[in-house]
């Protein structure tokens, strides 16, 4: 038996069918009565291969270079490809083109046929010729494919037969046109700029620089392929288009709205119409509409139109929504100057608009208990994907159903200066006509069936989807006071002698309105919140504390002319009434006169004179008298008790003497 047929416990550990440790091998050898012997002069014990399980014998024979069969040794020929990475092989298959894969399938079919013929006992040359004639392929090609695939496992033949075009990086670089490193750097610095110059122009500058510096440059098409190959798309977008464009390469997040109820969450934004309208003041403008939309159903709930996006249109549109459908739980808007004004969002900690003061009044949205959400600003620009209402302004939205309405024919301006219609400027519509077209267009937008959204499922309209959920939703209804708050914006003013001044609404002619109420006299602190209707500033306004508690209703005091005697008499009459009314209220408040107060006061007794404890002592000193002051010691109970004790003792002694 050859030495290669004997193995130690260390060599056997971990083989198939055997323990994984040397101790386990020795324990198994002892229990199985293996015939062991010492290996040479060492202390190691080796065991014969006949004692091992069949799995271990196979593993040992695969490792052996020579195998003894009978009395003769046979050398085992090693495969030229003993190990290969299957993942890398199939990765090359994934990177191959469809044409390369079709060629690999044809090659694999021929190789499989050759292998089948050889397995059936046909010699290789006959197999090559037979398969070549049957498939109309040259036998030499069949032979080359067969020997190319044979070192690999049969299951990997398809991937192994894919063409190696471009697999070797060094081979591919040899085929590339030569380009000087300085020329390549010059092109990168010129082309990858925010100005986004054309590659053809950059190549023209590169040719002039190459002539001056002696650079070697390839053709324009070669440089274009080199750019696509060596500069990743995301890096090219970042350097030429900026961070915001790079951010847009990242896939958008898909958010589900099925867990929301109708009127649980709304969002709003402004839309600039592409229509010439003569507004109520006679000015020709392109009006802007603020839109509130339900996020679940995508229905447009309310809207108001004005000359620009301002707090009044946002507030009035929200008043329409709350008055008709109820108070939502969440609102999402942009952090713009109009949407994030103090009248609407004052008191929200993360408003990030205007100067935040401690005495700022609470805005309407926080007062109604609505949680406000701001849209994100990513890399310097707004993130329109955060609001579903943005989709209502894009292609097929309000531009189609409102701006291109038949009532507005001839007034459409086009979405951009480059998209003006042929009848641009032909007509200017009146404001009332535009508002009618706006109402009809939004109603058409809401009732149109077959909407492709998560809730509508390509079947329902926005109106139908909203009604289904709204009937089963618990929505807070607004009280009369809450609706009153929505109709009146708020402003913090300073009270002086019961009067205050409002600057809102009088800026066109630089005028102010002054308001007064007796209950504001002596109010602390001297700042209050005034809620008013901009269309009725000459009527009364409502006064609240800074934390939202109602105080009173103040009336507007109009300015009078300098020589207006009638206004002076009216003012004197009102002042006299105020004084008289105050006197009557004061008399009613004083239920007790001063004489009654004096009668009920307790009698005042003269106080006892204080006892002096200092005695003046006069002593003659020559022909003068010296005055000394001595503090009189008060008698205490201790002195009196001592005198009584002495008297009792003296009396007892006399009795004792008489008894003797």
TrEMBL record:
Nuclease among keywords: yes
GO aspect biological process, one term: DNA transposition
Keyword Nuclease assigned: yes
InterPro entries recorded: DNA-bd_dom_put_sf, Homeodomain-like_sf, Mu-type_HTH, Mu_I-gamma, Phage_Mu_transposase, RNaseH-like_sf, RNaseH_sf, Transposase-like_Mu_C
Swiss-Prot/TrEMBL keywords: Endonuclease, Hydrolase, Nuclease
Family annotation (Pfam families): DDE_2 (PF02914), HTH_Tnp_Mu_1 (PF02316), HTH_Tnp_Mu_2 (PF09039), Mu-transpos_C (PF09299)
Highest taxon listed in the record's lineage: Bacteria
Entry GO MF terms: DNA binding; endonuclease activity; transposase activity
Organism: Erwinia tracheiphila
Gene3D superfamilies, alphabetized: 6.10.250.2550, Homeodomain-like, Ribonuclease H-like superfamily/Ribonuclease H, Transposase, Mu, C-terminal, Winged helix-like DNA-binding domain superfamily/Winged helix DNA-binding domain
Protein name (Swiss-Prot/TrEMBL): DDE endonuclease
Domain HTH Mu-type: 3-68
